[in-house]
Structures are given as structure tokens and as C-alpha cells.
Amino acid sequence: MSVDKETVKKIASLSRIAVTEAEADALVPELNNILGWVEQLGEVDCSKVEPMTAVIPNKLRLRDDVVSDGNVRDKVLANAPVAEHGFFGVPKVIE
Amino acid sequence: MAEIFELGIAGIRTGVAAGDFTAKEVAETFVDRVSAAKSLNAVLVETPEHALAAAEATDKAKAAGEALGKMAGVPIGMKDLFCTEGVVTTAGSLILDGFTPQYESTVSANLFKAGAGMLGKLNMDQFAMGSSNETSAFGNVISPWRRNDGGNTDLAPGGSSGGSAAVVSGRICPAATGTDTGGSIRQPAAFVGITGFKPTYGRCSRWGTIAFASSLDQAGPMAHDVRDCAIMLEAMSGFDPKDSTSLDLPVPEWEAGLKSDLTGKRIGIPKEYRVDNMPPEIDALWQKGIEWLKDAGAKIVDVSLPHTKYALPAYYIIAPAEASSNLARYDGVRYGMRDLPDGAGLQDMYAATRESGFGPEVKRRIMIGTYVLSAGYYDAYYTQAQKVRTLISQDFDKAWESCDLLLTPTAPSAAFGLGEKADDPLAMYLNDVFTVPSSLAGLPAMSVPAGLDGQGLPLGLQVIGKALDEQGVFNAGLALEERAGFVAKPEQWW
Fold this sequence. Notes:
The structure holds two protein chains of two kinds. By secondary structure, chain A is mainly alpha-helical. Helix content of chain A is 35%, strand content 4%. Chain A has a domain at 5-43. Chain A has helices at 5-14, 21-38, 73-77; strands at residues 83-84, 87-88. The two termini of chain A are 36 Å apart. Chain B has a domain at 4-263 and 415-484: Amidase signature (AS) enzymes (Alpha-Beta Complex), CATH 3.90.1300. Chain B has helices at 9-18, 23-35, 48-63, 106-113, 162-169, 186-192, 226-236, 280-295, 311-326, 346-357, 360-373, 378-399, 425-429, 436-440, 470-484; strands spanning 43-46, 75-79, 117-122, 175-180, 195-198, 218-223, 266-270, 299-303, 405-409, 445-452, 458-465. In chain B, the strands form two sheets. Chain B has an eight-stranded mixed sheet with strand order 4-6-5-10-11-9-7-8, with helices on both faces. In chain B, strands 1-3-2 form a three-stranded mixed sheet, sandwiched between helices. Chain A: Keywords: ATP-binding, Ligase, Nucleotide-binding, Protein biosynthesis. Chain A: InterPro entries: Asp/Glu-ADT_sf_sub_c, GatC. Chain A: This is Aspartyl/glutamyl-tRNA(Asn/Gln) amidotransferase subunit C.
């Protein structure tokens, strides 16, 4: 499988990364080079193998369903590029 | 007596406890070393006040006759991947320019609780994606080492923990934190002639460590020698309920358990690690390592890890897939930079912010990750890679039937010049050929400096152990260290 320019633009859009036409052109061979290399995994017979889910057997813990922190609104907002009236600010969204 | 700046963790601890010098003198020494090393570009933010305050606390505790922590009086460098409360943390990326965490990562908090101070935040490959520290948005870190050809080519300190490698080898910080996703502690440690340790996945909490590939990321120490790594890893590790993959186990006393007599231990030599184009010097060093471990009482056995050649391609599917998900959080809304073109809506703002905030290698990996996780390709790429990961892990399990530890080179070459490999992402990825398999299997592994090549540059040997057998890895590392007698240091030119 190899990617063309249209696919690169679609991946960029899914990744929410703006690309210019020139960047998309440059990315086609770069991504194909890497994808061509990882495709050697296809040679491995994995028909009887389960995909790995945890490297070290470790059961996910459950904790009591209670509030364990909070009341840190100002800290949460402290690094926001725009924060007003206790909220994150974003450009107007009109559909 | 050695100058203070030449001391590592154990030396400082002993000297402070004996009253040979105060923690304040130590902190002042290294604060000066840091501010005099700007030409290496290894430190992004200097935090002398933090190091001095911790030193003062240690001196007070000592005067009051209180018990001192494991890291008391030791000022360290902190890789910029660890969130540090009130101190700008960027992960080497513009997208986090100016980000000032409102909380402390568990690893840094553990180290501070043990008495360590912080000298500064260390430069690194952007989001830990790189093997030469050339992907940082804040410029390359320059290795303190130079080739012995009389030239002054700037060399890569390795990556992604390149700043950490540079400051420890240059005796600018006595020790530093690193993180290792596919070799980012071990490969830079090998490039600069220091010791670096990646523990079993789950030993160190990932809470507050900026995420790259969550199923692989592990923090670890980078220090002068095996003992220093053992002390520092004890201070860094421990169960943390805030990390769902944190191991709920007591932290062993690795330093107290250090023992270089390997009688009864079986050391496996994996034949698949003898790769094409490996420099003969590295092969020769590996042979020496085998002799050293035999001399320490170990038995050498040949083993096979048949899926080794598939580790790198599996890694370069799994790590980008996880990264594409983890890095989705940088949206220009909650923290970091925002790029809002005139009249742009929300979606355009996301795309513009991520276009200007991420560097080329980060974008490349996010896009690869997005592609291999996208509908229609998920099974062919991602599921297949996770299956191969299972096979790689099973290879190790099989090897453990006939051996207790593995010995391999750490990296396929000595340090290269900055810029020499920057144009070819695939050539750069191959640097991690010996370190990635153990990362995929979550195993503890360390790099020990073992010799110099013909250019006068350090080479490292890697010891890999069974899950949770950090002690075995430390002990074999110590046996190598005692026999290698590695004392070379870069001459100070900066």
C-alpha cells in the first residue's frame, strides 16, 4: 500500500495539521518510504497470535467512585491562551 | 580529594554526610557549571533557586541531626519532559512554549522528597521523538565529546535525552533524569560514556511526564555509574495510584543489593543482534564484554530472538499510533500556543496551531500514526504490529528458559556528527535497533560505558533483564563496569 497526495492531505486533515501543496508533495515520498519499510511486518505469520495489550501483566485497578480532587478551576485555566469568566475561550463556532 | 564537580550521587552523599562540604557548596558548584555551559545548549531553563533551596534544607536537616534522604544534597538536571510546578516545561516543542505546569510530576516529586534539588530543565528531542537531539525546537544539544582527529565537528549527544547525556558527561550536573520509549536513555548514555537505566515498564509513574507512547514510556536515571543509577532509581520509582499502569510493588533496595559476583548467572548472547554493517570495534567490544562477564563467574549461552528484525518496524507503527492519540490534546485551547489566522473558525485554528507548533518529525509521526489507525488500515498495520509485539515478547520469554540476562551492544555506532543523519528519518530510526526490542517487551535494561572507538568516542554495552529483575541488570552492569575501567571524560572546551 502506498499513499498519494490526496491521501496525504486526508491524513493531514484527520490529524488537524494544516499542509500546503508543497508540503503535501514532499510528504508523499517521505511517508511512503516509512510505510514501505514497516510493511515487512506482513511477512510474519500471526494467524495464531493475540495482539499485545499489556507488556507487564497488570490488572487495572478500580477505585471508589468518589470525588478525589477538584476546586482547581484557576489552575486548570492558568495556561489557556484565552480564558474568560472562568471558561476557555475559543473562536465563534457557527454551523 | 576530587573536585566537587567531579563527584556523582554517592560521592556527594558521602561528602555531605561526613561534613567534607555542605550541600550549599555542592549546589553552588553545579549552578556555576550550568551557567558556564551555555554553548552546549543542553539546559533550556536554569533553576538555581531550586537547587539552592533544596541544599539549604539538606544542610538544615543535617545540622538538626535528622535522617537525610537518598538524594540529599544532590542537585540534578531534569529532562524537560517532566512537568515541574511553576517552571516552564516544553518537551522541546514550540507548541508548549511558555507552558507552566500547575503541578509536579510524580517522578520529580519523588526525587525532591528524597532531597534532590533541580539545576534546570534539559533540552531534548521534541516530544522525545529523535535519536540525536536534532528535533528540539530550541536548537541542537552539542555533545561535550569531540573526535580525536583534532577537528571540532559538533557531535550528537544522542537522543531523545540528549540534554541529560550532555550535562552528566560534561560534569555539569552530577546526574539527570531521562525517559526511554525506544532507547532514549540508553543510546544517549552510550554516546557520551555515562550509565543509563530503563526500569521495567510500570516502575516509575508516568503521571506528569508528557506522554509520547504510553505503553512504552518509562523514566529512568542517567548518571556516572551503576551505583548512582541504583540510588537514583530507588528515589524515582514507586507505586502511584495516579498512573493506571504503575506497578503496585515495593521498591527494592537495589543499591544495598549490588554484587558483581555473577557466579551461577547465565548470560545469553542473542545471535540476531549481530547486524550487518556493524563496526568491527563494536563487535570486538561485545566480545570483551562476554569475557568480562565470564571473569565475573557467569556462564555464557547462545540464544535466539528470532523476531528481532521486526522490532523496529513494529515500534514505528505502535509508537506513532500512540503518539497521534496522545498529541491530539495540543489544540490551542487549554494550554500552549494558539495560532488563530484572521477570520478562522475552530477547526482552522486547530490545524494552524498544530502546523506552526509541531516540528517536522513530530508531524511525520502523528501522520503515520493517524494513517495506521485509520479505517481500512487498522488491522493491516496496527493490529499486525501488536501481534508481532507479542511474538517479540515471547522470544524473550523463551530466551529466559536458558539464560538470566542478555548482553548486547547498546547502539550500532558511536556518536555521529550533528547533521550527518538528519536528512534520512529511516537511517536515524536504525540507531535504536538494539534498544527497541526490550522496550516493546517492557523489560529493564541499562547501558554501561565500556570503551572508546578509534575516534576516541565512547561505546556502550547493554544488559537486558527479566521483568522486575532490575537487580540482576544492575549487578551484571557493575561486573562490566569494574572490568571495563572506563574513566575517559571529554576535555572541557565549552
